[in-house]
Design brief:
The chain is an alpha+beta fold. 26% of the residues lie in helices and 35% in strands. Strand 13 and strand 14 form a beta hairpin. The mean pLDDT is 93.
Length: 553
């Protein structure tokens, strides 16, 4: 199978080629105006697929198609927002040549307008699918899954790339080009406009049982979803899609420029694209992880419900997700599965199960969340991951769990002067073996007060579900100190990982964040705990491990 990738040496085209590298039946023509760049890409390409550089201009595609006669053309060039009056020239040329076509288009108007070629494509017996990427293919698949359980009325979604993913200049041109410009969307049941990158919201991507992505700022982007998804869900009154690039200081600078452009009616900011491209690709800091969230509100039997879908991608796997939709279609073609002829947005190109197969073997994790009436604190934070906990751990955190538990523990204390002082201030127990333990739970402030008694020494903390920047975290308060913990299910253990902390509500530096290896588990059918509290520059303050049994009155 011969595939011509326009812009094949660029960010998305190059990643697509790498995803197809294991296919010996595929020949990839790495096309573009820069022959040197295409040749350099082919020289370092590793895999069973054959690659060959090809110099061409997408605006004059016919000679190359006649000479090479590829089975499929993939447009990975862009920016599609800047294709001008002849924006569909490549599509028209492919249809005339009887060649199938896919593209990565992220321009809403471009994708929404592809349907005008539907009759011609059907007559030629070819398929033309536009917008074959995370937005709108993955978003549409998620919403179809949600729509099985409710009539969707409101949708908000966001994508947060890893700061180490890198961004192409054409993508930056597209984003900066619509900053401060009107963006078509659905709002309060009417066709309306938002202002690109000038409207912002905050989301937390939190796959159940995984360390959440930190709470990030997302700003409105002009993506196909805004126009092509509402017609598929007749009850939908509102849709909003944002992107959450980091660092936030650069993000907020874009927000400010977008607002100024809109207010003062300034021309496009696209001339600033090279500057933002250079800065964004150099300001790489923080965790190498990215994510995506789709949150929908809807009605079921007249009752309002909320569902959300979350994706976390660790390390280098995340940047490949936008190219996976086209990868999946190509693999299906090789197996004899062919999209129906016609020209349309690619919203029905894949189902969620197709993506889940692509994610297998990669550090990409997904999961749904929904509200559960009467859920306990830990059930609310963990979501569906709660069901994977050992029975004894579930028993302690269940809504109907006994409020008093007895057991014993081994207690260790830090030896430094500062660690001993801190242990005394917080009332942590002295060191000892087989120390009797009583733990009591009482409802307080919408959370749980944990009162622990070690051989007569008492200390307590208040645990609540985090809100705002602590969303999806468990917040434990010791006096004036709040520590936000991620609840992570791993290997049959419930790990409690510190993520943020504050004193009197004032956030403190993460490098000073108290830590330690703390988890809950099952030992011979009994609830077991292993808690360590340590701090940078101080070391271990206290550690206690043991087992508990329910005390029934």
């Amino acid at each position: 199978m011969k595939i011509l990738i326009l812009g094949g040496y660029g960010v998305f085209g190059g990643r697509l080629a790498q995803l197809l590298a294991d296919l010996p039946a595929v020949e990839l023509l790495i096309g573009g105006r820069n022959l040197a760049a295409a040749t350099a890409f082919c020289k370092v390409f590793a895999g069973q697929a054959r690659v060959r550089p090809l110099q061409l201009d997408r605006r004059a595609l016919a000679p190359a198609l006649q000479q090479e006669q590829p089975h499929l053309v993939v447009d990975a060039s862009g920016p599609f927002q800047a294709y001008g009056a002849q924006r569909y020239a490549a599509i028209a040329t492919c249809i005339a040549a009887g060649i199938d076509y896919l593209d990565f288009a992220d321009a809403a108007d471009f994708v929404a307008g592809v349907g005008r070629y539907d009759t011609q494509a059907k007559a030629a017996g070819v398929f033309v699918l536009s917008g074959v990427s995370s937005f709108p293919v993955l978003t549409a698949a998620v919403l179809r899954q949600m729509a099985r359980h409710m009539d969707i009325t409101r949708v908000e979604a966001g994508i947060a790339p890893s700061p180490y993913a890198g961004i192409g200049l054409n993508v930056m041109r597209a984003v900066v080009g619509y900053a401060g410009a009107p963006v078509k969307l659905r709002r309060e049941g009417r066709d309306a406009h938002g202002i690109g990158l000038a409207e912002s919201r905050r989301f937390t991507v939190t796959v159940p049982g995984r360390v959440p992505l930190r709470n990030l700022r997302y700003s409105l982007v002009d993506v196909p979803d805004l126009q092509v998804l509402p017609p598929e869900h007749p009850a939908m009154t509102d849709i909003w899609i944002g992107a959450g690039p980091v660092p936030e200081v650069l993000h907020r600078m874009l927000n400010l420029l977008a607002a100024v452009r809109h207010r003062l009616r300034l021309p496009s900011l696209q001339p600033l694209s090279p500057l933002f491209h250079r800065v964004l690709n150099r300001m790489k800091s923080g965790e190498h992880r990215g994510g995506m969230i789709v949150r929908a509100t809807g009605l079921r039997a007249g009752v309002s419900i909320v569902q959300s879908w979350h994706l976390l991608a660790e390390g280098d796997d995340g940047p490949y997700i936008p190219s996976m939709a086209i990868e999946a279609i190509i693999r299906k073609l090789l197996q004899g599965e062919r999209p129906a002829a016609g020209a349309r947005a690619a919203t029905h190109a894949l189902e969620l199960a197709d993506y889940e197969r692509l994610f297998e073997g990669r550090s990409i994790h997904v999961g749904f969340r929904h509200e559960v009436s009467g859920a306990s604190l830990y059930q609310r934070v963990l979501g569906s991951a709660y069901a994977s906990l050992p029975a004894s751990v579930q028993a302690l955190h269940a809504p109907s769990a006994p409020k008093r538990w007895h057991g014993s523990a081994r207690v260790e204390r830090g030896s430094g002067m500062l660690s001993r002082l801190l242990a005394a201030v917080f009332g942590f127990p002295p060191a000892g073996e087989q120390v009797p333990v009583i733990v009591e739970f009482t409802e307080e402030a919408g959370g749980e007060r944990w009162t622990r008694r070690f051989a007569g020494r008492t200390f307590s903390s208040l645990q609540t579900a985090g809100v705002g920047r602590n969303e999806a975290l468990l917040v434990e308060r010791f006096g004036v100190i709040d520590v936000a913990l991620a609840l992570v299910v791993d290997g049959g253990r419930l790990q409690l990982l510190p993520r943020r902390w504050s004193v009197w509500g004032v956030p403190l530096p993460r490098w000073l964040l108290p830590g330690g290896n703390s988890f809950e588990a099952d030992v011979d059918g009994r609830f077991a705990f292993d808690v360590e509290i340590a701090a940078p520059l101080v070391g271990r303050i206290v550690a206690y491990r043991g087992t508990l049994d329910a005390h029934h009155e």
